[in-house]
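Hello,

I think I submitted the zinc ion job twice by accident. Can you confirm which output corresponds to this input? Input:
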Amino acid sequence: MSHRIVVAPVVTMDPALPRASALAWAGDRLVAVGEVDAVRAACPPDTPIEELDAVVVPGLIDAHLHMQRAGLKALSVPAPGGTWDAASYVAEMDRTADLDEWPPGSEPSLADRLEGLRQVQPLLHALGITSVVDPAVTVDEMRGYQAARAAGLLSMRVVAMPYLDPALPEILTRLDGIGASTGFGDDFLRLGGIKVYFDGEGMKRQALLASPWTPGTTDYGVQRIPSGDFASIARFCASHGWSLGVHAVGGGAVAEILRIFADIDASFPLRDLRWQLIHAYLEPSPSSLAEAARLGVVASLQPSIHWHNAAGLIEHLGERAVPANPVRSWLDAGATVALGSDGPFFPFDPRHLMWQTRTRMVRGLGDPVAPSLAVTGAEALAGYTTGAAYAAFAEATRGMLRPGMLADWVALSVDPVTCSASEILTAAVVRTVVGGLTVWSPS
Ligand SMILES: [Zn+2]
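Support: Only one job matched these inputs. Its output is below.
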């Protein structure tokens, strides 16, 4: 296997060696990360060395991106000028956020799914993304991913969370399935946790809150699954090796889910299963944050939704919505935070979303909302690397640059830890590498 060396400032996200000045890989794995001389000494004498005028960070992992739907939408929405580039794709997905991913009344074929993936992966790589957790994968989408993997077409590492929508007894039968569970697969395609919807959408006033949407009424929002049915699924998952990701927007939903989780944890410790609260942005209580941390439940949070919905939520809820999406509070409580986008239906450029969590600027308002809940550059990057890798069951191979781990890295024009928030927003992605292969560089 031939070795390669890149010399550049490296932000490793490895607490044992946070900064380096070179890295080397052979095949798809890193073999050395450190000072230039040490990295050279770890490689054969004729190893090519490239000096890169950029800062190298671990490949970014979007912990919540519907990639196959993003691919279909790339096919079904005409590209301005005929072909997409990342900037036009990001802008067009924002403009058409309310449209379905595929024209209603027709079904995409398997070939459509593969073509969509072929088109969309380079657009996401151009944003620095090397891995995604696809957070609600239907049976057809799972077939699409398996076929894409078999055809050698996946350049994005995918963790697919199965979504099942039949009645409860059938869900449990299907989950028993062929015996596979979370973790089955390989470095490019593996099964994540089961996806379950507990409440609805915030902007539709469906988030299940602990106190009513309108004071003095009984309008707490929507609970989409009875607690007993949810507990049955959760208990089954705990005893059969499945992780579980729960769509829960409101604090009432979050509290009820954690109550059920704590009950199960007493007999099946949950920490290693990395169950997730997904979204959890409206009024999660301080005790819920602490309970999530205690149980090892991951907070899968989307700065994109906060960016997109905050002004509207403040119209609905007034002051109550100002501290929405308190990423700072989750971190301070000791919870693992994985950042993601809910793309393509919300903005999915990681530079934009790291800027958002660092500033708490939101669409339509001139000033930041509750800026005391902002995070640092290091914390924002951790949400896209170490935190998301943990949520993807991949922290042993991804999210850090350390010898033995996968050679997935991104070169940026700025250091995302030390640069200002506005600098990350306008940073250039100079190169994206997956498994030692360049999957994107500017032409
Ligand atoms: Zn989603």
